[in-house]
Design brief:
Keywords: Coiled coil, Metal-binding, Nucleus, Transferase, Ubl conjugation pathway, Zinc, Zinc-finger. GO terms for molecular function: SUMO ligase activity; zinc ion binding. One of its GO terms (biological process) is protein sumoylation. The chain is mostly helical. Among the domains are: about 140 residues, no CATH class; about 60 residues, Zinc/RING finger domain, C3HC4 (zinc finger) (Herpes Virus-1, 2-Layer Sandwich), CATH 3.30.40.10. The chain is built from eleven helices and six strands. The strands form three sheets. Strands 1-2 form a two-stranded antiparallel ribbon. Strands 3-4 form a two-stranded antiparallel ribbon. A two-stranded antiparallel ribbon has the order 5-6. Strand 5 and strand 6 form a beta hairpin. It is extended. The termini are far apart. The N terminus is likely disordered.
Length: about 300
């Protein structure tokens, strides 16, 4: 029947086309192909191990370690340090002799002129000033002369040390520790001087004798000056005052050879210091070289003499 047929079609259409009003719309459980492809593109890529960065850091670390090792090796293998000090040759010994003469020049130019100035000023003051003023002033001048002599001895300590090293090189002795030898040699010479008594330091000094002589002649005209030891109190270590020296107006002459301690035979006198020796003894002491200087063997003398200085 028409009516029934129409109703069935309507029902079939309703079933085939369900109403969205009566059906709850859910999110689709599956994506279409395009959505899946887009999602796959948007998904984060799987994290890979940072192998390259780790390797790079490791390589940099190894390079830094190798660089530090190389620097340590370079420091340890310093060629100059391993080379060591070399012995001085004769050419360098000549330079030492020149340096020794430089100390002598310093003394001659910077110290010697002041002795004359001090002596002239002191004699003028002793002649024209009253006794009280002159006594105090002359004591200060005498102290100044002694200080100059001390400084002169210090310069001679440097000079003598260089001469000694030069002589050792001339005897083919290997000298590698030049600085250490020089420092110790200077200290040794200065210590020996400091251990002397006041008499031993100044009583045989020509400059000190000239200073005292000039003042004494002004204060005591026409009177011979006694020996310098009379002006310097005796200390422990000084020889007895009643020695065998012959004293003439403040100048001391010893007729015993300082080397043999016997009466002088065939005397030779040193021009720089005035000391006399037995000819055979002083020649043996100085050696065969006529210009090779050695310290005068007379007690308390700081002069250096050679065969050419003997007359």
């Amino acid at each position: 029947m028409p009516t029934a047929s129409s109703s069935r079609r309507t029902l079939s259409r309703q079933r085939a086309e369900p109403s969205f009003d009566s059906i709850e719309v859910d999110e689709p459980t599956q994506h279409n192909v395009e959505d899946v492809e887009e999602d796959e593109d948007e998904e984060p890529r799987p994290r890979r191990p940072i192998v390259k960065k780790a390797k790079k850091k490791e390589k940099m670390r190894q390079t830094a370690q190798e660089r530090n090792v190389d620097e340590d090796v370079q420091e340890d293998d310093d060629p100059l340090e391993n080379f060591g000090d070399q012995p001085l040759d004769r050419g360098q010994a000549q330079k030492l002799a020149g340096m020794a003469s430089d100390w002598q020049t310093i003394k001659r130019k910077n110290l010697t002129p002041y002795y004359t100035v001090i002596r002239d000023v002191s004699t003028a003051f002793a002649e024209f000033a009253d006794e009280e003023q002159s006594t105090e002033f002359l004591e200060e001048m005498e102290t100044l002369v002694r200080q100059l002599l001390d400084t002169e001895t210090e310069l001679q300590a440097h000079e003598q040390t260089l001469i000694e090293i030069n002589q050792k090189i001339a005897r083919n002795e290997a000298i590698t520790d030049i600085i250490d030898r020089y420092d110790k040699g200077v200290d040794r010479n200065l210590d020996a001087y400091r251990q002397r008594t006041t008499r031993q330091k100044y009583a045989k000094s020509d400059e000190y004798a000239h200073f005292k002589q000039a003042i004494f002649e002004v204060q005591n005209p026409g009177v011979p000056m006694p020996p310098l030891t009379d002006f310097i109190p005796r200390e422990d270590g000084d020889e007895s005052d009643d020695d065998e020296d012959v004293v003439v107006g403040g100048v001391t002459q010893d007729y015993k050879c300082p080397l043999t301690l016997m009466p002088i035979v065939d005397p030779l006198t040193s021009e720089p210091c005035g000391h006399s020796f037995s000819a055979a003894a002083i020649r043996e002491f100085l050696g065969p070289h006529r210009i090779a200087k050695k310290k005068c063997p007379a007690s308390g003398c700081n002069k250096y003499i050679c065969l050419n200085d003997l007359k």
